[in-house]
Amino acid sequence: MSLLARALTIVPILLLALGCGGGGSVGGPPPASGSVEIRVDWPSRGRYVPHYANSLVAKLTTNTNRVYTITMNRVGSDGYQGVAMFPQAIPIGTNSLTVEAFTNTNGSGSKVATATMAVEVTEGETTSVNVSADLTTTIDHILIQNQPITVQAGNEIQLNAVARTAQNGTILLPPGALTWSVVSGQAHGSVTPLGLFLGISQGTATVQVAEAGAGVSAQANVTVTPPPPPPAVYLIVFTSDRDDVGSEGINAIYSMRSDGTALTRLTLDDALYRSPSLSPNGSLIVFASDRDVILSDEIYVMPVSGGAPTRLTNNTVFDADPVFSPDGQKIAFSRLINGFWQIFTMNANGTGQTQITNASANHSRPSWSPDGTKIVYECDQGGDYEIWVMNADGTGKTQLTNNSVDDLAPSFSPDGSKIVFVSYRVAGGDIYTMNSN
Questions:
Q1: What is the pTM of this model?
Q2: How far is CA 409 from the centre of its chain?
Q3: Helices (H), strands (E): how many in the chain?
Q4: Among 349, 347, 378, 376, which residue's Cα sits nearest to residue 363?
Q5: In whole angstroms, what separates CA 130 from the centre of its chain?
Q6: Gap between the Cα atoms of 364 and 371, Å rounded
């Protein structure tokens, strides 16, 4: 065979092998595709994305049955928009997207919201999907635990609740995700947003726990029982100059039982002691004295049985009127600064001394509310002394009495509903009570 004849025989074979002229698929154009990006408005942009969600997992199932996954982690606590793009080319047409929000980063923790939607992909274009408005909560209901709930007046109890799915599975939420409130019976109890309930007076309070964004809540009754009767005999501490002989100026601290027995002198030197007050557990006495600094009282504590006092303040000015907070962790007291008494608080060991009044007036004789959230005191800001109350951090100062005579020495009742005080509004100093508002 000639060389020309051989060449004509080989060419058709090569063309067939290369798919030319026969419509073969090898080396043809790629399938049409586009891109998909996911956007999410992290709180606080007003759409339903739980404020405690810290990651989002997006799973795209293509119309060719391929599955691609991307994860977005929330950064910081402020509201902003997170954006992430699938790195793969996505076939044009309708594809299925599933999005899940989790409490922890990288898709870990509890699943708290989910959404499923169709995504239309156009050739050569990027399809942007903001999933914020499509996310729905996985919380179906909330269960308040340990019912029936009972607490004694004056005591606290931690309320607990769990979020559940429609299948009754437990959703572990971080602290603060569920918010507590009292919806009725506020005179009988109060509750913090984190669920710490304080019994105030005998009766029934109805509490509610809610996840506001999910629109899910639950209620339960809390029965507040009467406090135990006071002990038949209890301890009293006071000051007296009963043992002052001559002109030493002794004013000592004593204790005795409420039936008048077991009178005991606790301080034995010749210093002046003022304003003794027992700690809530009855183990310590806090007081003011000039025992170390002449003409300058400081704050001390000592065991209720007496013994060496521990000095808590160290100034060249007067400190007075110390009183323990109901939990025994703080002490409120008065300090004379630039000619005016101001109220301070400090830790029970003397650290963290903080001034909480600072007006050009006298603020003195503080007394804590039973729950430790407020301090009632006397103040002469208007010329004469009136009764005022403020939050324990010094905010929310409110005048409670308004007279042209002195109202002095206020103190809350054990249930916090009343304030007892001394007033000169008639002839002499008499004892009055009023509602705590």
A1: 0.50
A2: 32
A3: 1, 37
A4: 378
A5: 33
A6: 20
